[in-house]
Specification:
Layout (H helix, E strand, L loop, with lengths): L7 H7 L3 E6 L14 E4 L5 H10 L6 H12 L3 H7 E5 L5 E13 L2 E11 L9 H12 L5 E6 L4 H9 L3 E2 L4 H14 L4 H16 L5 H8 L1
Parallel strand pairs: 5-6
Antiparallel strand pairs: 1-6, 1-7, 2-3, 3-4, 4-5
Helix pairs in contact: 2-3, 7-8
Length: about 220
């Protein structure tokens, strides 16, 4: 891969979360699981399984911190979490992946669903297991919301490519976000980047009607 030098201001920009959106009314690609794997919804008492998985992918410095975060974010809405969180199991009944069909009551004054906490255990990554999990989550979200969003890192190129394949587009909330996706797309050379960015800018303006400050965005996604 061609090496690109990144200036300090661009490095700061790349540290921001990349927000991506899609319409719940558009076709959702349907992927089936490989033999030996299955998906079930989260049940009360599996909080530690969620924490262990998120720790395994590096989201938290310890399993204890992951568990504390679970109760902080979802503890007051456990019943809803049981309806919206999906676990991916291997043939031995071990949890090897998760994703949540969450919701946001006020995403810039627009009711949205959120694909949240998508994680596949490191030793199971690269096997095509994320796609069926995303299918299950999106199928659940569209029962409740017409717009779906997610956040990812701008340098998480495999994830961005995956989300683009599922019809997500970058949220062009302001000129910085336009620059962010421009830098990201050139770093991993997505051949449709210019077209995606142009479409995303039109759609974002059409849905949300204005530009938002970075402070507003960070308040929402961090």
């Amino acid at each position: 891969m061609k090496r690109i030098n990144i200036s300090l201001d661009r490095k700061i920009l790349l540290a921001l979360p990349l927000v991506m959106l899609r319409s719940g009314k558009e076709y959702i690609p349907q992927y089936e699981l490989r033999d030996g794997f299955y998906i079930k919804k989260f049940e009360k008492g599996q909080e530690k399984d969620w924490a262990d998985l998120e720790y395994s992918v590096g989201e938290f410095g310890s399993k204890e911190k992951a568990l504390r975060h679970f109760f902080k974010e979802f503890g007051s809405r456990t019943d809803l979490f049981c309806q919206r969180c999906f676990f991916l199991y291997n043939r031995r009944g071990e949890v090897v992946g998760t994703a949540t069909a969450w919701e946001d009551s006020d995403f810039f004054h627009t009711l949205t669903g959120r694909m949240h906490w998508l994680s596949i255990r490191p030793d199971y990554q690269g096997r095509g297991l994320a796609r069926p999990l995303i299918t299950a989550v999106l199928n659940e979200i569209i029962k409740h919301r017409d717009i779906i969003y997610l956040t990812t890192l701008p340098v998480n190129f495999p994830a961005i490519k995956l989300y683009l394949d599922f019809g997500f587009f970058p949220f062009m909330a302001n000129k910085n976000y336009h620059r962010l996706f421009d830098i990201t797309s050139r770093l991993f050379f997505h051949h449709d980047a210019a077209e995606i960015a142009a479409k995303a800018f039109r759609i974002t303006k059409g849905v949300f009607g204005k530009e938002y400050t970075m402070k507003d965005i960070l308040k929402l996604v961090l």
